[in-house]
Amino acid sequence: MNTTEKVIFEQFPYWEKAIGSNSAADRAELLVFVGCGTSFNLALALAAYANMAGRKAIAVPGAEWQNRPSAFWPEWRNTHVVALSRSGETTETVAAAKASRAAGAFVTAITVEPESSLAKNCDRMVAAETHPDEGIVMTVSASLMVLLGLQMIGQKVPASVVNSARQLASALDAALPGIIADRSHFVFLGGGPLFGVALEGALKLMEMSQIMTQAFHPLEYRHGPISLVDGKTVAVMLYSSDQREAETKLVGELREKGAVVIGVGGPGDLELAVDVDLSLAGLVVLPALQVLGERAAQARQIDTVSPRHLTKVVTL
Ligand code: F1P
């Protein structure tokens, strides 16, 4: 077992420590979730969750918020910027936090590095302890930042999510070998908060296995991308409880065209039960998506401990 795989399966005690560790933010301004790479995908999911919880929120990549905030929100000074970064050292995210504070915005940092530059350039820090062996590919820290972010927007995270996530990851792992063999085109589909999570599933798979991968809102997939579906396709459908019927119909069409479908929370060639509702699904499915990336890499004999062209932190 390599370190990446070990860390994915050993992440759950860190979830247990993070549950209940931070309270909801009381600030009422527009929430701007900012991050790069995985952290931006998590920002997208958290912004959707914040809106669903009655807040006002957007997600913006670090460099975009640093360089052209007015393209996203005209009154950007009057915002509460929530900067997500595992390392707390990503150049664009740190610069976005500094620029926001200089302009008078309130900045919360969500990180696992309490001594980092980001932690030193925020008004409030929300941090968790992560697995000491986590490597270049972000796994446990991604899950932890979503957990902390959900708590920050007032979502109660029950201790039971740990088992839900662990079981889902194990169930997918047990069923995977027959499902992904000889398949080279992967697509992740998820709506609402699960869109950011679908993007994260795709990014994880790309980083770990170098397989060309895409992510879409489910019903967007018919509008062009469906032309790529054939017998080499694996579609991962992250079902949302409120759009299940429409998503099930789409899955039927994908299967007719030759795709194998991993149904996370609904029908597919593989049907995996998700025992939480949409408000927690974005957290609970993350470890399973990390397992998928690792197993796809192993099937291609690709080392996820030293992934090609990647570094743990991007500094410019
Ligand atoms: C974010 C990130 C990762 C990516 C790569 C470089 O870092 O872009 O998502 O996989 O390893 O860093 P961070 O700001 O969360 O530390």
From TrEMBL:
SIS domain sequence ranges: 21-160, 168-302
A Pfam family that the UniProt record links to this protein: SIS
SUPFAM superfamilies named in the record: SIS domain
Keyword Transcription: no
Keyword list, A-Z: Aminotransferase, Membrane, Plasmid, Transferase, Transmembrane, Transmembrane helix
Segments passing through the bilayer: 30-50
Official protein name in the record: SIS domain-containing protein
Source organism (scientific name): Rhizobium indicum
